[in-house]
Amino acid sequence: MSETKAIATRTTRTAQHTLLRFLARRAVTSVILLFGIVLVTFSLTVIVPGDPVRAALGEGAASNPATVEAFREKYGLDQPVWIRFFIYVGNLLRGDLGTSLKSGQPVSADLAKAVPATAEIAFYAIIISLAVAIVLGTLAAYRRGKVTDQVVRVVTLIGLSIPTFWMAILTYQLFFMQLHWVSGSGRISPTITPPPRITGFYTIDYLLNGDSVGFLDAIGHLALPVLVLSLFTIATLTRFVRTSVLEVLDMDYARAARAKGLSGGRVVVGYVLRGAALPILTLVGIAFGSLLSGTVLVEAVFAWPGLGTYAYNASKNLDLLAVTGVGLVVGVFYLVINLVVDVLYGVLDPRVRLS
């Protein structure tokens, strides 16, 4: 008996050490990728055509050589590129993303306002999309070739075909302008006071402060952006879930579970979805990253003060430090999401730890 316990203890320790080595490898890779993100985002701002000084000062002030020289010296634009890069990296290590040329505010302060706004709609969109996609995709796969499967496939095809910006305009005109079912643009109504900042998510912050009026107003403003982003994401995830579930349904252990007389629901929940979880997890990570970084058009339609709007304004005004900050944040988004997905892979599937 003691020998059996000793073997079990050694097996557990080996599994733990394997998982720790796996996590360490992923952490080292993430640090290397982070440096690459910094290098690429900084390099892109260097090769961007146009004069950031003229864009920031305007034609009148830019015609004065003394003003231009003072501006370039203040923001370090008179230094060689390689010196500017090392200065930028040094500032990053201190948490300083620089100062926006246009707003005159620290880029980190601007991003602290923009990122939570985008993260809020992306978070709710991915939660709703995943829940709906799992139900529809699993149902379509379990009833493949039947009417239910055909309807789901047609609906998802329509969802993938409709441009997101056109859907945003259509829903805004219909549900707000015509029917008045939801609130208008922005995160909250002009008559509502923003909540004390805790998480940056207005809905959560209103709840934590016990403000039901503000919470309902924030939900009303969230409804349309989340709906538009969810429609496309649901279509993408549903088709992928259907494919993944179909592959697992044809595997031997799923057939054996059905042959044992288990109900269809128990086979799907207990065996099929667990087997299909890993590939679905990968696509969910990619979809969430896309929602966090690709909401420019939706934010423009709904006047949402998020990362997409900030990135567009920074690019339009050639605000190099702001553009670099946005690029860095988006890169870190994908890096963190990929790291979380890799860790979940290692936890769910021991075979991944050995690869």
TrEMBL record:
Topology of the protein relative to the lipid bilayer: Multi-pass membrane protein
Database matches in InterPro entries: BPD_transp_1_N, MetI-like, MetI-like_sf
Membrane-spanning intervals of the chain: 27-48, 121-142, 154-175, 218-241, 280-304, 324-348
A GO molecular-function descriptor: dipeptide transmembrane transporter activity
Superkingdom classification of source: Bacteria
Pfam families: BPD_transp_1 (PF00528), BPD_transp_1_N (PF19300)
Keywords: Cell membrane, Membrane, Transmembrane, Transmembrane helix, Transport
Gene Ontology CC entries for this record: plasma membrane
Subcellular compartments: Cell membrane
Protein family membership: Belongs to the binding-protein-dependent transport system permease family.
Stated name of the protein: Dipeptide transport system permease protein DppB
Source organism of this protein record: Microbacterium azadirachtae
Lineage, opening ranks: Bacteria, Bacillati, Actinomycetota, Actinomycetes, Micrococcales
